[in-house]
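Quick bug: Cytochrome c oxidase assembly protein output formatted oddly.
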Amino acid sequence: MPESQLLSPRAPLCRYSGLRAPRPPHVGRSKVHTVLLPLVASAPDLPRFTLERVFTEWSLDPFLFVATVWAAGLYLWGVAVLRRRGDHWPIGRTLSFVVVGMGAFFFATSSGISAYDTTLLSVHMVQHMILAMVVPLALALGAPVTLALRTLPGTSTRGPRHWLLAVLHSKVVAVLSFPPVTLGLYIVSPWALYFSGWYDAALSSAYVHEMMHVHLVLVGSLFFWPLLGIDPVPGRVAWPFRLLMVFLTLPFHAFLGVTIMAQKELIGGAHYEALREGPMGAWLPSVADDQQLAGGILWAAGDVVGLIFFAVLFTQWVRDSMKEAAREDRRLDLLERRDTMRE
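Here's what came back:
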C-alpha cells in the first residue's frame, strides 16, 4: 500500500495499529465512534437506522463532551457552595439545567442521533430541534446566571462576580439581548444554515460541524433566556410582548418546514448522494424523501415546542398577576387598618 494512503489525514484509524487505512472514495465524512481507553474507530458504513440505533450507536465528540462535563460540573459546584452556606436552591432548577438541559445536549451530540446526523437529513433535523429549542429552554429554567451571582467570589466592584456583572451590563450583551435582534437571529439563522454553503461546510468539516451545534444552542439561549425572565439578564420585556415574540415564531417554523419540503434543490445533495453510492445505499431512502421527512419534522416539532413554551409563559404571567394582586390586597388592607387606628 502506498505510504501516501497510509498517512492520509482523512483515513480512519485502524483498530489495533497506529497506521491509517484508506477510506473508500464513495463514503463521505462519518462519525468516529470512540471510547476513552483504548481509542478505536468503527467502520465508516453505518447499519440501517432504527429507533434502537439511537440508543446503541454512541459516539463521543471530545470537544462537546468536555464542554458538557464542565458546564454541568460548574453548575453542581455552585449548588454545593450554596448548600454549604445553608442557602436553599430549588431542586427543579438543578434538574432542569443538569439533567434536561445538559443531558439533552449530550444525548443530541453523542447518541445515535449524532452518529447518523451526517447520514440522514431527517435525523439531523431532530438534533437541530433539540439543540435549538429543548436545550436552551431547559438551561434558562435552571437560572445559571442567578446561581453564579450568588456563588462567585468577589463583590460588585472586584473579582469574578464583578467580571460577570460587567459582561451582563456591557453594550455587546445589551445589543445581542435586544428583543428584535434576538427574534431576528432566531428566525434568520436556520434559513442561513440550510440555504447557503454553511450546511455543506458542516458536512465536510468536523470543526464547522461542532461550531454549528454550539451556534444553535447560543442563538436559542439568546432568544429564550430574556423571555423566561428568571435570570437577571438584559432584554427582558413585559409579559404581553414575551407572548407576542413566541407567537411570531410559530408561523416561521411552519413556513421553513414547508419550504424545505417543497425545495427541488437538495440540501447537502452531493454529500448524501455520494453516501448512496456505497454499501449504505442498500438501506438509505432517497435524498428527496429524506428531505421531505426533515421538513415535516421541523414544521411539527417547532410548532409543538413553541406552543408548549407559549403555554408556560402564559401560566407564569397568570401566576405573577395573582401574586401582584395578593400583594396589592395586603397593601390595601394595611392602609385600611392604619386609617381605622387613627380614627
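Actually, after a second look the formatting is fine. Confidence is low (pLDDT under 50) at residues 1-43. Closing.
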